[in-house]
Specification:
The protein contains 8 helices and 12 strands. It is an alpha+beta fold. Helix 2 packs across helix 4 (129-145).
């Protein structure tokens, strides 16, 4: 009897691998946010009896819409997401099985708010094309909904990039700078973004840096946000003063940020703690 059951389990597992196609999405990855956003708008979860209810999707990497008259205040918007567990829905005439898993006691994200989860999507057949089409449709819808917003990424407590939210695109005209300075900076950025081939031909690392300095509240972050909106780039924020920041974490973050983005290094002076100013010699009356 034990041998028969073992043989049955072996045949069952072989049949699953042969006739089922499965994709697993990690909540730290962009594809997870795309699919969850797509599911939140699917009729199945507008009528389902088992859902997760949220008034803000920031814990899953995107923000609720803002009101028209106050772009800094998040509007109350009820979203219905697949509850942890198993679900079934149809996509392009085929059945999909969803399994959302939330391991107990695992958190990440800014201040521990974002739970590390997995979402498994399974369908019958031998081709994964249907799952690829699902991810592509979810990506397209997500990008369409965020086209008028600047996406902001921050570093999770585990040292991964996580989408902290989004902001309405801010026009450069709203940033107060000396005459001609904003236009010159924007023109320089556009020239750089159009010169990737030149950098490649000459073997020069394709990056450009700007040092923004000034007292808190003088508009440094506002300028970065306006640049990102005008150039249609996402903003990736690293705080060098974070107690969890290490050389290895910083190296990993730099390697995994989007190819075309604005990387904002905050508190850059924290990288030079303990150094003396150039030319300063103590004990010699200088």
């Amino acid at each position: 009897m034990a041998l028969s059951k073992g043989a049955f389990d072996h045949i069952y597992e072989h049949a699953k691998r042969r006739f089922l196609v499965r994709a697993e999405l990690d909540s730290r990855d962009d594809a997870y946010r795309w699919v969850m956003h797509w599911l939140s708008q699917h009729p199945t979860f507008r009528k389902s009896q088992h859902v997760s209810v949220s008034t803000s999707l920031s814990s899953f990497g995107w923000s609720a819409d803002t009101t028209a008259d106050d772009s800094d205040r998040l509007a109350s918007r009820i979203m219905y997401l697949p509850a942890p567990g198993d679900h079934v829905l149809r996509f392009k005439g085929r059945w999909l099985w969803l399994s959302r898993r939330r391991p107990t006691g695992t958190t990440s994200g800014h201040q521990g708010r974002m739970m590390v989860e997995t979402l498994q999507v399974t369908t019958y057949g031998t081709s994964r094309r249907l799952l690829e089409e699902l991810v592509e449709a979810a990506r397209d819808r997500y990008e369409l909904s965020s086209r008028q917003r600047t996406q902001i990424y921050s570093v999770s407590m585990e040292g991964y990039w996580t989408q902290a939210g989004s902001r309405p695109i801010r026009p450069m005209s709203s940033v107060v700078l000396p005459a001609g300075q904003a236009e010159a900076l924007l023109a320089d950025c556009r020239e750089f973004l159009g010169s990737e081939a030149w950098y490649a031909r000459h073997g020069i690392p394709y990056r450009r840096g700007y040092l923004l300095y000034g007292a808190p509240g003088t508009g440094k972050t506002s300028l970065v946000t306006a640049l990102a909106g005008d150039l249609q780039l996402d903003v990736y924020v690293i705080s060098l003063s974070s107690p969890t920041m290490s050389d290895e974490t910083l190296r990993n973050l730099l390697n995994t940020a989007a190819t075309r983005c604005i990387l904002l290094l905050e508190d850059v002076d924290a990288a030079f703690v303990g150094r003396t100013a150039a030319g300063l010699v103590t004990g010699e009356g200088r």
